[in-house]
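thought: fold this chain, then report.
action: predict
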Amino acid sequence: MKKTFLYTPILTGLLFLSSCTFFELETPIDPNNPSLGSVSQNATRTQVQNLVTGLESRHRDYVFTVTMLFGTMGRELWYLNASDPRWQTDWLGMNNRTANPNMFGYLASYTNPYFAIRQGQTVIDAVRNTSTFTDQEKNAVSGFSKTIMAYQYLIVAMGQYENGIRMDVKDVQNPGPFVPLAQAMTQIKTLVDEANTELGNAGTGAFPLRLTSGFTGNGFSTIASLRQMNRAIAARLAVYRQDWQGALDATTASFYNATGSLDAGPAHTYGAPPDAFNPLFFVLNANVTTMMVVHPSVLRDTLANDARVRAKFFRRTAPVAVTSDGTPLSGQYQDRRFPLNTNELKFLRNEELVLIVAEANAQLGNTQAAVGAINRIRTAAGVGNYAGATTRDALINEILFQRRYSLWAEPWGHRWVDLRRYNRLNAQNVDVTLDRGTIFQQLARPQAEINWDEYIKTR
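observation:
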């Protein structure tokens, strides 16, 4: 019998059966999970609607693992879990552990974004191959899907970094090669720009299908507003690519508002079963040993009277404490942003866009504009205007400091990514004194991906 591999990272739910099978069963038809074939040609509006709803659901599946994992590695938080010490030992790199393919619990930061990407591709194929939508409606649905796909590709790229990522995953049984980070980022830019062009050819009215309140309840129900969301993602990408003018151009076309609410932006939504609860919600002051806590260094470095600290951090009566590999870890403060386990979670906010404007202007030497954006953040936090040096390096230091508190534990892992962008993943900036851990630059390529490429070479 020929040896086969189950390609789990982006091909799931398929069982490879050998010719030695004793008997074969007819493929069951599940009305709740239609086959790809049933929606790839002449899909109904209801079927495409269900696919778009599924895309929104897939779009949020990264939140828990990426927030906890990236946040832990950047030491903006600890995810303490006494039931399994690997949440601490592996993720913190304690006792010289490495970010290897067998690292505990990290795989969802890779697979879940790809599941969303594949869902997005399915939506595009379905809407492009049916006559039930007008050309403008097809552009709207395709542009929305590609926007979400670009967001998800960027998650994988930030986790894998110099490993590179697969960009061509349309054929899950014949995926494209891994491409270097710079090439992947260029292709992501192409994708998000294609999405913007398609949305630009989608008319000027409302989005043709139903979106959740995470979009519609936050002002993202029209084609124009979804283009603004697209440009916000493009602005984040431009900063990561060090395309500073591109970042400013993208923010200008986004929902950026220099004087508006810093909290404005689209959100992931949650609800009671059969929906999912907000994965970042923890009961305040609960007597538990499983909890996301604020990293002590974040508390140590706060500015006096910072309103963000009061709004985001709750001081517990008793700390959450665990011991891993003989190292005690204790968190006195927990997250207080979500009063209910059904609260929505913003995945892009105007506050990040203001900070992007500050960073891009600082890099371009536009000192006055950079300081103005910094002061917008500082004034909202109640810490007064910036009075430090106005050299490029001094302004970048200030901006990274403000990003640390403005974007704390948002569903991305900004701190880890930011420090790496500026070559600051070192002991001077990442406090490992309490956990005696390791500073990881990137995650490992999953073992299943390694196995798949080895299999392709030999088949």
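thought: worth noting. The longest strand covers residues 313-324.
final: tokens above.
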